[in-house]
């Protein structure tokens, strides 16, 4: 059982007077930041805000903290240290990757994208059509939003070089079978790029075990600073053309970050692992092994979220005044719940705000998915998203407020 009091004690937002009485249900847009990240960021800005890797002490400490963040996150995710890099955002990282593939691919070759994705992991890839690259769309089921691997098999052939899909959608919420999809794609000779932005806040995955060639997520949605985190496996990373400065071409973690990194935020990202370690130790998890400790925390988070999510799904799944997007079984999805209403969603979110419920209404950059499911992106959906630091009383408050409004 997750020690929810311990968890909430790690997040200053829960002690902040201006946030008292507010239940936060728009975590898919950005999570609260844990104290460990804030402490590291404050220390960097006050003690080490100098150019890193110079010979003087403040600079050496600055560089060491940046290296620590990369090393510890990579170890937790089951990849080599230089296979993990930071960028200004996941959207920017994806755009840079698309430019690299633009140079690698030949006209007539193909990539596969989905219409389940956030625009960040579909728009940049679709633009490759302007270069003569064939773009094939793996379409979701219009009723359920489900991505069927059998439909992917029908799209795969010797021309396909890359398959892009989300670990889970930011509106459908269903957790896609990454290992199965990756195996199908690799068997057809294609590389795999997974958008993990909507999944990573619910437990960082072991990318080494899952198998994709690229895995992307956003630190600011995972209790950290505003950074995009990218895992690029070595085989693909050395094949793709260098997108950074020419003198960084031999350094894997610099090849796809043409902009200089935000030193302080990279260093502060180690605080994310500090927090995961604190959770592991508090709950009697494994004493050694970064991936084992990460898996323990992942399961701890998911167990708590599933227990809180099912009552919310049960409260909305059979209503005739709304449509729940995605599965109604909590174990099959992330706690990101999109509801298509019989009216525009944003005014309902505004009404919830008056009752101390922080939620969102709109298309959430997933207009393709909404349109495919027959939902007007202009009216949008009411999105209710939470993480493991949400407690049962907040979910109860949400269910009561929803029932009164709808």
From TrEMBL:
GO MF annotation terms: transaminase activity
PANTHER family to which the protein is assigned, alphabetical: CYSTEINE DESULFURASE, PYRIDOXAL PHOSPHATE (PLP)-DEPENDENT ASPARTATE AMINOTRANSFERASE SUPERFAMILY
Residues annotated as transmembrane: none
Keyword Hydrolase found: no
Record-given protein name: Aminotransferase class V-fold PLP-dependent enzyme
Species this protein is from: Pseudophaeobacter arcticus
Taxonomic superkingdom: Bacteria
Aminotransferase class V domain location: 24-238, 301-398
Keyword Transferase appears in the UniProt entry: yes
SUPFAM superfamilies: PLP-dependent transferases
Sorted UniProt keywords: Aminotransferase, Pyridoxal phosphate, Transferase
Pfam families hit by this protein: Aminotran_5
């Amino acid at each position: 059982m997750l020690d929810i009091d311990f968890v909430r004690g790690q997040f200053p937002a829960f002690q902040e007077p201006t946030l008292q009485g507010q239940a936060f249900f728009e975590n898919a847009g950005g999570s609260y930041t844990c104290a460990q990240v804030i402490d590291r960021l404050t220390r960097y800005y006050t003690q080490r805000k100098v150019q890193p890797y110079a010979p003087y002490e403040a600079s050496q400490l600055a560089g060491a903290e940046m290296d620590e963040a990369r090393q510890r996150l990579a170890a937790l995710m089951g990849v080599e240290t230089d296979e993990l890099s930071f960028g200004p955002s996941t959207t920017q990282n994806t755009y840079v990757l698309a430019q690299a593939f633009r140079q690698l691919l030949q006209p007539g070759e193909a990539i596969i994208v989905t219409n389940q994705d956030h625009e960040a992991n579909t728009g940049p890839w679709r633009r490759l059509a302007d270069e003569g690259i064939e773009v094939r769309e793996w379409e979701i089921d219009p009723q359920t939003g489900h991505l069927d691997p059998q439909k992917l098999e029908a799209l795969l052939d010797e021309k396909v070089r890359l398959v892009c899909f989300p670990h889970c959608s930011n509106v459908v919420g269903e957790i896609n079978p990454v290992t199965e999809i990756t195996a199908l794609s690799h068997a057809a000779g294609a590389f795999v790029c997974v958008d993990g932005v909507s999944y990573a806040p619910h437990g960082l995955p072991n990318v080494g075990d899952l198998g994709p060639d690229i895995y992307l997520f956003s630190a600011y949605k995972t209790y950290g600073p505003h950074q995009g985190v990218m895992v690029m496996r070595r085989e693909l990373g050395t094949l793709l053309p260098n997108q950074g400065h020419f003198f960084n071409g031999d350094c894997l973690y610099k090849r796809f970050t043409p902009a200089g990194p935000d030193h302080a935020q990279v260093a502060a990202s180690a605080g994310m692992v500090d927090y995961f370690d604190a959770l592991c130790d508090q709950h009697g998890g494994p004493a050694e092994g970064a991936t084992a400790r990460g898996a323990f925390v992942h399961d701890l988070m998911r167990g708590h979220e599933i227990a809180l999510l099912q009552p919310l799904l049960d409260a909305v799944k059979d209503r005739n005044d709304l449509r729940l997007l995605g599965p109604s079984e909590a174990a099959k999805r992330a706690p990101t719940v999109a509801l298509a209403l019989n009216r525009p969603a944003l005014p309902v979110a505004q009404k919830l705000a008056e009752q101390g419920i922080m939620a969102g209404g709109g298309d959430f950059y997933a207009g393709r998915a909404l349109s495919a499911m027959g939902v007007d992106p202009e009216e949008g959906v009411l999105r209710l998203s939470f993480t493991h630091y949400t407690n049962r009383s907040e979910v109860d408050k949400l269910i009561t407020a929803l029932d009164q409004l709808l």
